[in-house]
Structures are given as structure tokens and as C-alpha cells.
Design goal:
IMP dehydrogenase activity, little secondary structure, 4 strands, two-stranded antiparallel ribbon, IMP dehydrogenase, single chain, Aldolase_TIM, two-stranded parallel ribbon, IMP_DH
Length: about 70
């Protein structure tokens, strides 16, 4: 039986306020886990819609470290 994950958030729940930061791009780690065995280098997944993800989009997403779900 699967785990129940806590509440999620959407874009409407988050406000990003521009500010000065000492963090440089090479210090940031965007990796995330899709499953226990699949790690993504970027937290992005393209939609499983025939007008969004075809083979070209899935390949481009994979090359950048994400995943594309083909409809």
C-alpha cells in the first residue's frame, strides 16, 4: 500500500519576492525523486497530452534532466 503524501501547493500559494542573494547558480541543487529508483536533475515533467508531449518533447526533456510523458 502506498504512502499518503502531505498537502501540495500551487503557483497561487507561493509569492516570490525579488531580493539580493549570496547564492550563485552553481550552488543550487534542483534534483528531485520521481520514484524510489528514478531521480530527475530538474523538477520538471511535461504533460501527457498529445498536443504537448510527442517524441521530440520527451527527448528534449530527458536531455535537460526532466521527463516527458508521451500520450
Amino acid at each position: 500500500m502506498g504512502k499518503i503524501i502531505g498537502d501540495g501547493i500551487t503557483f497561487d500559494d507561493v509569492l516570490l519576492v525579488p531580493a539580493y542573494s549570496e547564492v550563485t547558480p552553481n550552488m543550487v541543487d534542483l534534483t528531485t525523486r520521481l520514484t524510489n529508483k528514478i531521480t530527475l536533475n530538474i523538477p520538471m515533467m511535461s504533460a501527457s497530452m498529445d498536443t504537448v508531449t510527442e517524441h521530440r518533447m520527451a527527448i528534449a526533456m530527458a536531455r535537460q534532466g526532466g521527463i516527458g510523458i508521451i500520450h
